[in-house]
Design a protein that fits this description.
The protein is α/β, with parallel strands linked by helices and about 300 residues long. About 40% of the residues lie in helices and about 10% in strands. This is HAD-like domain protein.
Length: about 300
């Protein structure tokens, strides 16, 4: 039997491809000090992280998925407002200053936290200034490129195996900017439709990642199957994945056992690989009988893709 026509490799972003350049709490402290905020004597990374987590969870409860639903109704400005409130409330907690509702928000965001500080922190985590790639990421994409080149060497277009690479992230649109800033080439879904026109199929051949999909765009977060389904349909466009599922082999890689590992398998992926990063809180919580595979490096993904190429 001929090799499968297409492989979809989906990757998590944070703590799989990249990580905070230095701890987030330290970056918040550094920027706050640059703006000469009157930080209390006990303002350390532990306290900032505690306040950050509290602010993050509160905003997540009030406006799930970065305010996705409210933004659609015109009641929220989305990630910029969402993260602005997290930053503001985090630093407010560190400063121990009650919010003064009578203050002009255009002058100080209503609580003594300068708008410029909030903007700087928001933009810092929109680029390589806030994040770094893991050491195995660039070698991994180099091997992916070599694998794609070997697949493109086939002269039989009808039997060619296509490899599409996507990112699925429980985040907002800044993921795309971060990856680009870190030196990766990112395409878009319109480039990958597997039409008969060979030129159309090869438009994205130089991209490391064909498209990035975030929970804010879709309105669902991993492990919900809808976000995986959305990614699969983008890859299979103009068809739906359900119409051609037997022509695809789906592989997912992430760092969180429940959100990535179980989520992908329950959404119908063929393989779900968990990367054992030290920052992952979910890897040790393996109470499932699902066949999630643990790997030590992104380079361990390549054999699974080669197996998919040769799958009968």
């Amino acid at each position: 039997m001929a090799a499968r026509r297409s492989i979809l490799l989906t990757l998590d972003a944070l703590d799989t491809l990249y990580h905070a350049r230095v701890p987030i709490a330290r970056q918040y402290l550094q920027v706050a000090r640059n703006y000469n905020l009157s930080l209390p004597a006990d303002a350390n990374e532990s306290k900032v992280w505690k306040e950050f987590y509290k602010a993050f969870k509160a905003e997540q409860t009030k406006y799930p998925i970065y305010g996705h639903a409210e933004a659609l109704r015109g009641l929220h400005q989305g990630p910029r407002e969402w993260w602005g409130d997290v930053i503001r409330n985090c630093l407010q907690g560190v400063l121990r200053q009650p919010t003064d509702s009578t203050t002009n928000p255009e002058q100080s965001c209503g609580d003594g936290i300068p708008e410029e500080l909030i903007e700087e922190l928001y933009e810092r985590f929109n680029s390589a200034e806030g994040y770094s790639l893991y050491d195995d990421v660039l070698p991994f994409f180099a091997q992916l490129k070599a694998l794609r080149s070997s697949l493109d060497a086939s002269s039989d277009l009808d039997k060619k195996t296509h490899l599409i690479v996507a990112v699925i992230s429980n985040s907002d649109g800044r993921v795309d900017n971060v990856l680009r800033s870190l030196g990766l080439q990112i395409g878009s879904p319109r480039k990958i439709s597997l039409k008969e026109d060979r030129l159309h199929r090869l438009e994205g051949e130089h991209d490391d990642i064909n498209f990035v999909l975030t929970s804010y765009e879709v309105g669902y977060e991993k492990p919900h199957p809808k976000i995986f389904e959305y990614a699969a349909n983008l890859a299979a466009s103009p068809r739906k994945m359900s119409e051609c599922r037997d022509q695809w082999y789906l592989v997912h890689v992430g760092d969180h056992f429940r959100k990535d590992g179980e989520g992908a398998l329950l959404a119908g992926w063929n393989e779900s690989l968990i990367l054992q990063r030290e920052t992952d809180p979910g890897v040790s919580q393996n109470s499932s009988e699902l066949p999630v595979v643990r790997i030590k490096s992104l380079l361990d993904v390549i054999p699974f893709l080669k197996k998919a190429v040769n799958q009968d």
